[in-house]
Task: structure prediction
Amino acid sequence: MDKESAYTLLNKSGLRKTSGRVAILNCLIKEQKPLTQQEIAEKLTDVNLNEVSIYRALEAFDKAGIIHRVEGLDKVWRFAVSYHPLSGNCHPHFICTECGRVECLTDLEVPKLTPKNYTHKIKSREMILKGYCEECT
Result:
């Protein structure tokens, strides 16, 4: 997975490069795992961003395809950078059923399924694998 800078991701998406957006993307790039909005806010205490600003930025990033979201067992969304959004690469996620940890499994790909006589238009694919992480095994 190629790491791209926050500026590069924002340029490719056509979104404005505000200091808040850059800080949020840099946080997600640095952590390399899905984070909740609250976790992002906790890591960015030195940046003057409120919950609404973080929420709006995450929504804009998701809509532009530069991040993706996955819902944890606690029904809270987690956000991670999508380094290849236009390639169609769709990876599964792992959720630990003991501690709730969520991980992107970027070395795997969700298979494309196209049944015969299927008239629905598929907009996205998701695969969640559940079990025990290394720490909970």
